[in-house]
Amino acid sequence: MEKAAFSLFNLSLELQQISDKVLTGERISAEDAIILYQKADLGFLGSLANFVRENLNGNNAYFNKNFHIEPTNICIYRCEFCSYSRKMNEHGSWESSLDEISALAKTYQGKDVTEVHVVGGVHPHRDLYYYAELVSRIRSELPNIHIKAYSAVELEYMFKKANVTVSQGFTILKNAGLNSIPGGGAEIFDETLRAKICPDKVNSDGWLNIHETAHQQGVSSNATMLYGHIETYAQRVDHMSRLREVQDRTKGFNCFIPLKYRNENNPMSDIGEVAVIEDLRNYAVSRIFLDNFPHLKAYWPMIGKDMAQLALSFGVDDIDGTIDDTTKIYSMAGVEDQSPSLTTNDLVDIIRKANRIAVERNSIYEQVKVY
Ligand code: V47
Ligand code: SF4
Question: Which domains does the chain have, with CATH numbers?
Answer without folding.
Answer: 53-370 (3.20.20.70)
